[in-house]
Amino acid sequence: MWNPLPDTFAISGALVYDGLGNPPAPMDLVVTDGRIASLRPDGELNLTGVYRISGTGLSLAPGFIDAHSHSDTEILRAPQADSKISQGVTTEVTGQCGFSPGIAMRKNERENLKGEEVGWDDLASYAVALKRREPAVNIASLCGHNTLRQMVMKSEDRPPTPAELRRMQEILQLSLRQGAAGLSSGLWYIPGKYADTSEMAELAKMLQGTGKPYVTHMRTEGDNLLESTREAIRIAASGAGRLQISHIKTGSPKAWGLIDALLDLIGEGARNGVQITADRYPYLYSGTGLRMILGPPYDRVANLHQVLRESAEEREKLVALLETPGWPLVPFDRTIISNSGLPENAGFLGLTLVEIGKRLGISPARACVKFLTEEAYVYTAFGRMNAANLERFLALDWVACGSDAAAYPFDFSQGRAHPRAFGSFPRFFQAVKKSCGPAAAIRRMTSLAAAIYNLPKRGVLREGYHADLVLFNEDTFVDRADFVNPHTICEGVHSVFVNGKLAFTGDDPEKRGRHGDFLRV
Ligand SMILES: [Zn+2]
């Protein structure tokens, strides 16, 4: 393993941000055996004989914490975590949106890892499997309700029996004991959407006394945003009284005008004793499956692509529906095809359905149905968000940076990412720096997430804390990834350290130290 530094080294003369939002100061920092051994004003420490990295002209911050990551299994396939480490991320919190494969063995994992023996049946054995892969970043995981429900009830659209509910509670409790950072839900997805509020509240009860949050991708982020938020607050109140709203947004044109009411509701929840925080990626396009463009009843057809493949009549029906006024749910000119498993579609990636339709000489609706027929899941970016609202969310001091993306390699061997996978942190930093200043921006990329998820001794530069660090140039720290070239590395990162070891340098981005750990909470 690449590890060019001694166990004790110093970073001297950098402008140091502590991660708590305090004004920065020039300081020297000494790392010994993975921890911050000393942190003192520049020039106070005697560094004679200590291996020294010059931080002059650069800024030093705690390694960034991705408050919303989907690296659960991707980190096993791409443990070098190129997309994350290259923007200064040293810890990711996975198990989001109700999906936490880490708590249960997935049958196909062995094939996905190309013959390598990786398997697990609970979070503790997932942690062992993860460490064996030597990930470049640290991973903490939530326990996801979609996964729990899938394990106990498959994809059935009905309430659980008392015995099934008990079984889900038991698996959740075991996961929490094994270090899960909280309970997540994705009530917008199958099978999470089949759960009612009381099912969620019964599960959230397992969080009582743990201080761990209920983390939710809410039932809807669009027209019924306020009802979903009320539901989320109610569920969190049955748990530890802590709510983390995933990728907070006003997700449809109708919801754009609801932002004030949403913030009032959150204020009211807080006054009633529920501590509410959120995460957000700094982009106006979301990333999810193409079928979300359809809405009911099509979004509930589990094998939609097979149905379409077998019946020209069904395909025509869907084309006709999509061409009716009021459809689709997202305009075709704001629907970008981000990824496809079919090589013949490579030339379409990064283009809108309108652009693809033009190239093929067919209507955008037909282009849409073509993709829905070809594959079960077509990764798509939908532009349904509002720029002014995004700016307001990013200015809130309780909103952490979360990429909502998995770890990707530089190449496209694991598919093509949303540009947020490679660019969220520099983009968040520059946006929040403009409205709130750099120290506040860094706090929301570091200690805020550590506090939300109770990550021990991370997210702050303090003696005795783990030496997860990023040395970077504030001015040139800028994202370069877009939908056409989504795997483009950001600028301005000098070096990244994970658990006191060098993990990445901007001089040679391919070189990687893989010293991440599983973080038990
Ligand atoms: Zn989500």
Notable characteristics:
single chain; 521 residues; alpha/beta; TIM Barrel; 2 domains; 6-stranded parallel β-sheet; 31% helix; binds zinc ion
Describe this structure as you would to a colleague.
The protein is of the alpha/beta class and 521 residues long. It has two domains: 64-284 and 385-472, Metal-dependent hydrolases (TIM Barrel); 288-382, no CATH class. It has 18 helices and 20 strands. A hairpin with an 8-residue loop joins strand 1 and strand 2. Helix 11 (304-310) crosses helix 12 (312-322). Bound molecules: zinc ion (ZN). Zinc ion binds next to loops.
Number of strands: 20
- End-to-end separation in angstroms reads 27 Å
Low-confidence stretches: none
Q: What is the SS-derived class?
A: alpha/beta
The gyration radius over C-alpha positions equals 23 Å
Number of domains: 2
Biggest sheet character: 8 strands, mixed
Number of helices: 18
Q: Regarding CATH, which class of the largest domain? A: Alpha Beta
CATH fold category name of the largest domain: TIM Barrel
Small-molecule components bound: zinc ion
Query: What does the average pLDDT come to?
Result: 94
Give the proportion of residues in helices: 25-40%
Gross morphology is globular
Per DSSP, what share of the residues sits in E-state strands of 2 or more residues? 15-25%
Q: CATH homologous superfamily name of the largest domain?
A: Metal-dependent hydrolases
**CATH-scheme architecture of the largest domain:** Alpha-Beta Barrel
